[in-house]
Automatic annotation (TrEMBL):
The name this protein goes by in its record: DUF4214 domain-containing protein
Limits of the Rhamnogalacturonase A/B/Epimerase-like pectate lyase domain: 25-94
Pfam families reported for this sequence: DUF4214, Pect-lyase_RHGA_epim
Record domain DUF4214: where: 393-457, 479-518, 524-587
Matches recorded under Gene3D superfamilies: Phycobilisome linker domain (1.10.3130.20), Single-stranded right-handed beta-helix, Pectin lyase-like (2.160.20.10)
Membrane-traversing stretches: none
SUPFAM superfamilies per record: Pectin lyase-like
Taxonomic lineage from the root: Bacteria, Bacillati, Bacillota, Clostridia, Lachnospirales
Taxonomic source organism: Butyrivibrio proteoclasticus
Length: 595
């Protein structure tokens, strides 16, 4: 058997590096022959089974390999299937209506990367069923599917689900679908049936058609007696930076067919929901979309080039759509959706105008110009923007910035704009210190938007508050930002720069372990080129350690002892620095920042 060490690695959603330093085998070593039209399925599975419980990577070179869908490529835990970009899995025709070309069942830490699945729908025998899927993930955790082209399967391009709905332990979790092209599948391009913590990003989906629901992305857990039990509700789903083209010429189905995305349409009342915490951002849907049954659904920075059917009070932030249906029950007694003008009866435009006018007066100190008043009123009334969007638009405007207000004035303006009152002493002190440490107004927007006071203010004007997600790392955790700000001041002896502050905050926010924070505090700053360029002698070096890690100036005996150890060569600088960094005093400093 040929084996080599793996040069590249893939990181699964739970942080496990499943391929690095693992054994690497090729399907060619197990009898697969590209382009010879013979069945290669057994060779693929033999290569996978050669890893008896160990981590491994199965590589597939360029070429066309024939796969029997009735057997499928059966991946198991800790396996990476790494296919060349020009690998093609040609799926043999079958009469079976239930199969998976690639199956991940009862496994974890699995990666599928590269290659094309050329499905068998054009060669399928018969016209029954809809369960033939390209990639079928069943009751598995931490599965990454990336850089794949998946097309023309009898059912879904990718199916995420369970073999049984009987217990909460079933279902899939931690699924990442990244940079895939998924097209022309007969049912839907991606179906989420029983899965939590799913992220779909950077994908292109198109032309799902053939049998209902025919969606780009469909969230559709199996119901029971007209309800969806909580353990089947799909939770924490993210769809990011993805484009979906619907099947040409088919629009206005009202029930989710031929949609860019849809949450299942069957529930008869709003107490039934199929998904919770659905986030869609940076997407383009070239067709209709519908949220019929997802609670806590937020769509941001997205273009829906069709009608958006909203039954669950979706939060829309900077969303462009051709039309919006918003209704407590979109179904008439005959089961047909209303086909009159879109309805927005819950909006009182006079109240919306009053809200817009008030913000101009509070933040800019003037009445709104006609065009600004009309634009914001229309956006709020149509649901294309929520209250927090106009707050950000006005307080984040050049006009406001050019006023060069102090941090104290900015905090007071945010309180008045979003909470309708002056700042209380504790809140004023806290937010002012956050701004001085390097946070921006975005942190205040995010902090206020979920408050009861902002919600009540918005309700008094008949508009939705919305949600706000910060863009910069420095705005995500006040303690981390203040901690990094202090490192700049004490270790480098200067104020932060924005780029550096964001970089270090991002590194700490990604891993709040003590070891990582120590690494940033020591190696990150004291091994930096900027610090090395100071060319400090041993005495000055130890003085900086006192200020950074003990939070005080040196004492003469201590300084003499540490400098003596350096001058004699008893310890090097890293050894001395570790003595300071792992002191109880620095632990107390970290605790002050919640670290």
């Amino acid at each position: 058997m040929m084996s080599i060490s793996v040069a590249a690695s893939f990181v699964t959603p739970n942080g496990t590096c499943v391929a690095s330093a693992a054994e690497n085998v090729s399907v060619l070593d197990f009898g697969a022959v590209p382009g010879d039209a013979t069945d290669d399925t057994a060779a693929f599975n033999s290569a996978i089974e050669s890893f008896d419980g160990s981590t491994g990577t199965v590589t597939v070179p360029s070429g066309t390999f024939n796969i029997n869908p009735n057997v499928g490529i059966r991946l198991k835990s800790n396996i990476t299937l790494s296919m060349d970009a020009s690998t093609v899995l040609e799926v043999n025709g079958t009469s079976s209506s239930e199969y998976g070309v690639i199956i991940v069942r009862n496994a974890q830490d699995v990666v599928i990367n590269g290659g094309t699945i050329n499905g068998e729908r054009a060669r399928h025998n018969g016209d029954n069923g809809e369960g033939g899927h390209g990639v079928k993930v069943i009751d598995s955790n931490y599965v990454t599917i990336s850089n794949m082209n998946i097309n023309s399967n009898w059912g879904d391009g990718i199916y995420l689900g369970t073999a049984s709905d009987s217990d909460e332990i079933y279902g899939s979790n931690g699924i990442t679908i990244n940079s895939c092209k998924i097209t022309d599948n007969r049912r839907s391009n991606i179906s989420i049936v029983d899965a939590n913590d799913v992220t779909i990003s950077g994908c292109y989906l198109a032309n799902a058609y053939g049998t209902a629901p025919q969606c780009g992305i469909n969230i559709e857990p199996n119901g029971k007696d007209g309800k969806v039990p909580d353990d089947r509700v799909c939770k924490r789903i993210k769809i990011l930076d993805t484009t979906v083209d619907v099947h040409d010429g088919i629009m206005d189905d009202y029930y989710g067919q031929y949609f860019g995305f849809s949450t299942h349409y069957y529930p008869s009342d709003k107490s039934v929901y199929t998904a919770y915490d659905l986030q869609i951002s940076g997407c383009t849907f070239n067709g209709d979309c519908g949220n019929y049954s997802a609670k806590k659904c937020v769509i941001s920075n997205t273009n829906i080039k069709g009608t958006f059917y909203d039954r669950y009070e979706t939060t829309l932030n900077n969303v462009s759509c051709g039309d919006i249906w918003q209704d407590s029950n979109p179904y008439a007694s005959d089961g047909v959706a209303p086909q009159e003008d879109p309805i927005h009866q819950w909006i009182d435009e006079e109240k919306v105008e009053a809200f817009v006018t008030r913000l101009y007066e509070v933040a800019l100190g003037r009445e709104p110009e006609d065009t600004g008043l009309e634009d914001w009123t229309n956006r709020l009334s149509s649901g294309q923007a929520q209250a927090v969007n106009i707050v950000q638009g006005i307080l984040g405007s050049d006009e406001y910035s050019n006023k060069n207000k102090s941090n104290e004035d900015i905090v007071n303006d945010c309180y008045n704009a979003m909470l309708g009152r002056s700042a209380d002493p504790e809140g004023f002190s806290n937010w002012t210190s956050n701004l001085e440490a390097g946070m921006t107004m975005e942190a205040i927007f995010a902090g206020f938007v979920g408050s009861q006071e902002f919600d009540s203010l918005c309700k008094s004007y008949g508009i939705k508050p919305g949600t706000y997600v910060v863009n910069e790392a420095r705005d995500k955790n006040a303690g981390v930002t203040k901690f990094v700000n202090r490192l700049y001041t004490q270790a480098l002896g200067r104020p932060y720069d924005v780029g550096g502050l964001n970089d270090w905050c991002s590194q700490i926010n990604a891993n709040l372990s003590r070891d990582n924070i120590m690494n940033v505090s020591t190696n990150g700053f004291f091994h930096s080129q900027e610090f090395n360029n100071k060319n400090l002698n041993n005495e000055e070096y130890v003085k900086v350690l006192y200020r950074t890690f003990l939070g005080r100036e040196y004492d003469a005996p201590g300084l003499a002892d540490w400098v003596g150890q350096l001058d004699s060569g008893e310890k090097d600088r890293d050894g001395v620095m570790r003595g300071f960094a792992y002191s109880p005093e620095f632990g107390e400093i970290m605790a002050q920042y919640g670290l």
